[in-house]
Design brief:
- There is one protein chain.
- With about 260 residues, the protein is α/β, with parallel strands linked by helices.
- Helix content is about 30%, strand content about 25%.
- It is built from 7 helices and 11 strands.
- Strands 6-5-4-3-7-1-8-11-10 form a 9-stranded mixed sheet, sandwiched between helices. The chain has a two-stranded antiparallel sheet with strand order 2-9.
- Helix 1 runs parallel beside helix 2.
- The longest helix is centred in the first third of the chain and has 26 residues.
- The N and C termini lie far apart (about 50 Å).
Length: about 260
């Protein structure tokens, strides 16, 4: 087996295990109120996802980039925060693998979403932008005219979108599976609110000294712990994934 074949086999193995796990969660928790949530991101070996001063940072190698695109195709929707849109201007599509593009969702409390963003240029999928109650109404009209769908959702005490209000709403819209790609504020809030079912991290052998994936300013409560942890080396990136007992699962156990 050549090195290329070995890399492809490793990618397929990770993707297949995650796809099977999504199916298991769907079968076990058909009556749940939230979508199945997968958080996935790339980080340096010192835990960073971006430079301290902002800007883009290429961490994934070609193999783990393909893996990420394949995993996107397993999900109904993909969610990022507005800072990711402002810094990276992502497309959030499936371009490096086979699969359907997920529905893009952006958390944007104050409607800072740029009218020239690539997410407004998709031929079929217009972004869902989640804003707080006090966001600018004129900006909402402009974004709506550009094709975006605006959801007004209450904010929590930290000024962030209340995930306990948003996630059930997304489920009622037919979005059964949700992939979360960042940035730091979104990842930390998702983990702190314990609404994540599974986590996949690609660890690049680089030292960055930058912005960490989990923000200690927001993570001021016990964080959930991974179980059923697995590892796979793909080229020089170490892929780690595991499962959480989400708040939705605990609630179901309480009512059983």
């Amino acid at each position: 087996m050549t090195l290329k074949d070995e890399l492809l086999t490793a990618e397929i193995d990770v993707c297949e295990r995650l796809r099977v796990r999504l199916g298991e969660l769907g079968n076990q928790l058909g009556g749940r109120t939230n979508p199945i949530v997968t958080v996935t991101y790339a980080q340096s070996i010192d835990g960073c996802i971006a430079p301290l001063g902002g800007g883009t940072l290429q961490l994934s190698n070609a193999a783990t980039q393909r893996m990420t695109h394949q995993i996107r195709g397993f999900h109904d929707a993909i969610l990022v925060g507005i800072n990711t849109v402002l810094s990276d201007d992502p497309q959030l599509t499936v371009r490096l693998a086979n699969g359907n593009d997920p529905q893009p969702i952006v958390l944007d409390t104050h409607l800072r979403f740029p009218l020239e963003a690539k997410l407004l240029c998709h031929p079929c999928l217009n972004p869902i932008i989640v804003a707080g109650p006090e966001a600018c109404e004129q900006k909402e009209r402009w974004l709506t005219q550009s094709g975006a769908q605006i959801l007004r959702v209450p904010v929590c005490e930290k000024g962030l979108i209340d995930l306990n209000q948003l996630l059930p709403l997304l489920k009622t819209m037919g979005l059964q599976t949700l992939m979360v790609e960042g940035g730091s504020e979104v990842i930390t809030n998702m983990l702190a609110q314990q609404v994540v079912d599974q986590l996949l991290v690609a660890i690049s052998p680089q030292l960055i000294g930058g912005l960490h994936a989990v923000n200690p300013r927001l993570a001021r409560q016990p964080m959930p712990q991974l179980h059923n942890v697995q590892f796979q080396l793909i080229d020089n990136d170490l892929v780690v994934w595991g499962q959480f007992e989400s708040g939705n699962q605990r609630a179901n156990k309480t009512t059983d």
